[in-house]
Write a structure and sequence with these properties.
Elements lengths: L1 H4 L37 E2 L2 H4 L23 E2 L4 H8 L2 H15 L15 H27 L9 H51 L4 H69 L6 H57 L2 H10 L14 H4 L1
Antiparallel strand pairs: 1-2
InterPro entries: AH/BAR_dom_sf, AH_dom, Arfaptin_fam
Protein name: Arfaptin-1 isoform X2
GO molecular function: phosphatidylinositol-4-phosphate binding; protein domain specific binding
Length: 373
């Protein structure tokens, strides 16, 4: 038959049961006449694969059987597209295969997250970066101000009020310290008066001829010790009230002042940075930086103005509260001291009632068993 005559010598490859080539075909494809293969003469036979039920074809040099094939084949027409694909390197073909695989099948691998699902580690790194930049700018601004090279924003009225508050805070703390010293000394004097009154009373019992004299002195010392306890209660109330004013009310305002000063430094730092960028050239590289610096400057200016207004309001309310508190406490302190040294026990007790001051009796700090249950 004509189809058997045109069969290609490479149509069949004889394979043994264990997958090895037969020894009779060792010299296949060694004939120089088969050195150059023409695409128009290439044929594929499917008959030789029909009888293969098992075995593995060993890899090695491709060999052509010297014997004439017997299976019919179908001629393949030449194709310029196929020739161009064969002429290209292996890497290009592999790339096309991979592209086809990606288009045809879903591919597993790293998942790209959206912008709203950022990695927490990256967010922390971004926060650290922003904090470092802000700290560098503020430190540079503070150093330039101390060296006299940089300019700073000053609100003369507000700065004056802040300086007065700081000076008053130091003076109030000094007054509290002196009053505490007075209270400690009064406590020691009361203990001495109490001991002296007990000694006079004991001597009055043992000395009948001086019984009345020792008795008068004993009563006087005990009365002074009792009035001293009343005065000590008024002084301790004065100390506690002024301490509350200094350590809580004024200190709360001082925290706002510190935040205001921090906002002022940041505002001046970004203002200086924007001024330096505006003095430089304007090109495609610097324009985005100038725009970003302008945005940051606007943000910190609004923050600075907000903190300035908050501090102004805080100082106003603090001044009103301070006047009320100190007015009452100074009247208390004066009336108590005057009544004590005048020996006016009734006036001293009336002063404590006026300010609702309750004295702590000795041993009265701990509640009794009946009060607890």
């Amino acid at each position: 038959m004509d189809e058997e005559v045109h069969r290609s010598p490479a149509a069949e490859i004889s394979v043994t049961s264990n997958g090895e080539l037969e020894e009779s075909h060792e010299d296949v494809f060694r004939d120089p006449s088969y050195g150059d293969l023409n695409l128009s003469e290439s044929h594929i036979s499917s008959g030789s694969f029909a009888s293969m039920t098992e075995g593995i074809i060993a890899s090695g040099p491709y060999k052509v059987s010297a014997s004439q094939p017997t299976s019919p084949v179908v001629p393949v027409a030449p194709s310029s597209a196929a020739a161009s694909r064969l002429a290209r390197p292996f890497s290009d073909s592999q790339t096309e295969i991979q592209k086809g695989t990606m288009q045809g099948q879903p591919q597993s691998g790293p998942v790209v997250l959206a912008d709203d699902l950022k990695n927490p580690a990256m967010e922390k790194l971004d926060l650290v970066r922003k904090w470092s930049i802000n700290t560098y700018k503020c430190t540079r601004q503070i150093l330039s101000e101390k060296l006299g090279r940089g300019s700073r924003t000053v609100d003369l009225e507000l700065e004056g009020q802040i300086e007065v508050l700081r000076d008053n805070k130091r003076k109030y703390e000094h007054v509290v310290k002196l009053t505490q010293t007075l209270a400690n000394q009064l406590t020691q004097m009361m203990q001495t008066q109490r001991q002296l009154g007990d000694a006079f009373a004991d001597l009055g019992l043992k000395s009948p001829e001086l019984h009345e004299e020792f008795g008068y002195n004993a009563d006087t010392q005990k009365l002074l010790s009792k009035n001293g306890e009343t005065l000590l209660g008024a002084i301790n109330f004065f100390i506690a009230s002024v301490n509350t004013l200094v350590d809580k009310t004024i200190e709360d305002t001082m925290i706002n002042i510190k935040q205001y000063e921090t906002a002022r430094v940041e505002f001046d730092a970004y203002r200086t940075d924007l001024e330096e960028l505006n003095l430089g050239p304007r090109d495609a590289t610097t324009l985005p930086k100038i725009e970003y610096s302008q945005q940051q400057f606007q943000i910190h200016r609004e923050k600075y103005e907000k903190m300035r207004n908050d501090v102004s309001i805080k100082l106003k309310f603090l001044e009103e509260n301070k006047v009320k508190v100190l007015h009452n406490q100074l009247i208390l302190f004066h009336n108590a001291i005057a009544a004590y040294y005048a020996g006016n026990q009734q006036q001293l007790d009336q002063t404590l009632k006026q300010f609702n001051i309750k004295l702590k009796m000795p041993g009265g700090d701990t509640p009794s068993w009946l009060e607890e249950h």
